[in-house]
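Duplicate of #3305? Posting structure anyway:
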């Protein structure tokens, strides 16, 4: 199961920081950028995602990968014929170093404003220090938000419009983004999931995040309500990036799949409840 693979890889790789092992290096391998649908482009690496949402007046960039991914993202934007300095807003899915690590450098290169949720914005301002699960283990270059986002807030540049939905659990300020795009006379709902995986978290007696179970369950319930024609996420393996990149050559757009998000959410919810039950049984919790 895709989400289980993400958890296993995360737990394996926490033994070392940055690009020191083969797992992290493989996640950060460059791929050719491409248009996904409408004005949404893929500009990230093989496993750590980054998305460019374009307009005639400037662009929005979602996620910065590792610190080392920033140069890949910048170069991919240029390969597509866009200018990094035309990025007007940087936004984030969540404050982990494999997604927020490159934001400070990208902010410097682009001059863009950075918008983030209150909880994750504070963690990114601390460079990842004081994370509820990892403490000071997995830090990254600090980046200060220019704008704090509440649930339902909109980030827009011309007709590029992204809606922020707070979906906490994986982080306290985890943010799922949505936009609507047009292509060939049709409108498509695009969902950029934050994350619903549980990478080694204590779900039963988490003093640093006592509402973690409540938040995960609220997030699952909300995600079930989202209309979605195109499902995207911060890790390529979550939404079958490599397979879909290959399938694009067959002449259809494999990223358009109206049932994919809901199937992912159901699978992830089952895995979460199984992990919660395992932890309760292991701790003798009723």
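Output from current build:
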């Amino acid at each position: 199961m895709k989400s289980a693979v993400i958890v296993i890889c995360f737990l394996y790789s926490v033994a070392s920081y940055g690009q020191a092992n083969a797992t992290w290096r493989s996640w950060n391998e460059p791929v050719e950028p491409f248009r996904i649908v409408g004005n949404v482009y893929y500009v990230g690496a093989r496993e750590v995602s980054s998305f460019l949402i374009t307009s005639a007046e400037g662009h929005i960039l979602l996620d910065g990968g590792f610190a080392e991914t920033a140069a890949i993202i910048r170069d991919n934007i240029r390969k597509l014929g866009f200018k990094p300095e035309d990025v007007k807003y940087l936004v984030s899915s969540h404050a982990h170093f494999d997604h927020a690590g490159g934001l400070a450098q990208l902010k410097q290169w682009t001059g863009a404003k950075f918008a983030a949720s209150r909880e994750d914005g504070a963690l990114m301002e601390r460079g990842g220090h004081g994370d509820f699960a990892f403490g000071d283990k997995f830090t990254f270059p600090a980046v200060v938000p220019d704008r704090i986002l509440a649930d339902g807030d909109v980030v827009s540049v011309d007709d590029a419009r992204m809606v922020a939905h707070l979906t906490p659990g994986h982080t306290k300020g985890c943010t799922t983004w949505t936009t609507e795009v047009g292509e060939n006379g049709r409108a498509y709902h695009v969902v950029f999931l934050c994350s619903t995986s549980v990478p080694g978290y204590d779900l039963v007696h988490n003093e640093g995040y006592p509402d973690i179970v409540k938040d995960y369950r609220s997030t699952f319930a909300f995600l079930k309500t989202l209309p979605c024609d195109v499902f995207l996420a911060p890790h390529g393996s979550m939404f079958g990036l490599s397979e879909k990149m290959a399938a694009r050559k067959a002449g259809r757009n494999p990223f358009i799949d109206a049932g994919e998000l809901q199937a992912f959410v159901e699978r992830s919810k089952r895995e979460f409840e199984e992990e919660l039950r395992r932890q309760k049984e292991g701790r003798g919790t009723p």
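Confirmed duplicate; merging threads. The domain at 2-14+31-283 is CATH 3.60.15.10 (Metallo-beta-lactamase; Chain A). Confidence is low (pLDDT under 50) at residues 1-17.
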